[in-house]
Amino acid sequence: MENLEGLRDEILAAVRQAPDLGALEGARISALGRKGRITALMKELGALAADERRHAGQILNALHDDVTAAIAQRKRELGRAELDARLAEERIDVTLPVRPGPLGRIHPISQTIDEVVAIFGEMGFQVAEGPDIEDDWYNFTALNIPPEHPARQEMDTFYLPGAKDGHRLVLRTHTSPVQIRTMQERAPPLRIIVPGRTYRCDSDATHSPMFHQVEGLMVDESTHFGHLKGCLIEFCRAYFGIEDLPVRFRPSYFPFTEPSAEVDIGCSRAGGELKIGRGGDWLEILGCGMVNPKVLENCGVDSARFQGFAFGVGLERIAMLKYGIADLRTFFESDLRWLRHFGFAALDVPNLVGGLHR
């Protein structure tokens, strides 16, 4: 049997000097493979006497273990070196300018919210927010909606299990509860808009179980219906980008406003195509009115001293009209092709100076 100490030194040197994982695998096969040098020596043990076989076997087992440990150690070292080299090659200088390329598209609903906020922000309105889960006092009772009102029926409203302070929990059916919370928390004068999600039991091409609204509220000592008309006329003309857009107010009824009105904008339906602007026809766009004194009193506001106006508009509705989107359900289908077509540039922030959209 050959000099095992010399063999050990030779094999360990080859392992330590392996420049890469491929060379290391070659050294392993040369020593421990089926035809490797250590494997061949193991096969010769059977021809030795018992005492010699026992002694040589112990030495060969120790050599096998030493070589196996050396290979594992060298493999870890080469792996770390390879990872370090890869990290060095792939590192990114975060101080460099952003690489040119697409940044994705802004969803039309997000764009519409930004446009509405930009318009009313110029009028001094501040954005307010509130919870999606309300109790029926905030969602209905405080807004002067009686118990027998159809909107409170389970066929129209998503009620949740449980109650809060004796009131049933509900997914808010409008963003008006935020008006109640704001009047409870802050003293007039108030000027807020409330964009957010709302929920109702309805689903077709023009209705969705979850949709978006924006509510507006202004309360002070001198606000009157003329101020309401001025705000909404300017909003409609600014949003649709038509300076002479016809706007009319029709008497209506809402429990939380008195007097109440529906707002229509001018349009044309010639040839079966809807076009916003002058055209001899009208299209309902939103509801509004002066805040009912009972609502003010429910919030602890002195209705003999303060009065105000409120309005609400569906964001999907005005987005569909402005951008020619035919089906409400497509807003929520997560179709990237649809978003690439109707979406907006990621850095295109709406404002009245630079324009609402490009």
Q: Return residue spans where pLDDT drops below 50 for at least 5 consecutive residues.
A: none
Level-1 CATH class name of the largest domain: Alpha Beta
Number of β-strand runs: 13
Give the distance, in angstroms, between the N- and C-terminal Cα atoms.
87 Å
SSE order: HHHHEHEEHEEHEEHEEEEHEHHE
Determine the CATH topology of the largest domain: BirA Bifunctional Protein, domain 2
CATH architecture of the largest domain: 2-Layer Sandwich
Number of domains: 2
Biggest sheet layout: 8 strands, mixed
Oligomer: single chain
The count of helical stretches stands at 11
- What spatial form do the alpha-carbon principal axes imply? elongated
Structural class designation: alpha+beta
Strand percent estimate: 15-25%
The CATH homologous superfamily of the largest domain is named Bira Bifunctional Protein, Domain 2
User: What is the mean pLDDT?
Assistant: 87
Helix content: 25-40%
Q: What would you report as the Rg, rounded to the nearest angstrom?
A: 38 Å
Structure at a glance:
The chain has 358 residues and is α+β, with helices and mostly antiparallel strands. Helix content is 39%, strand content 23%. The protein has helices at residues 4-16, 21-32, 37-44, 50-90, 108-122, 136-139, 177-185, 225-240, 293-298, 315-323, 336-342, and strands at 105-106, 126-127, 133-135, 159-164, 167-171, 190-199, 210-220, 247-254, 257-268, 275-276, 281-291, 307-314, 344-345.
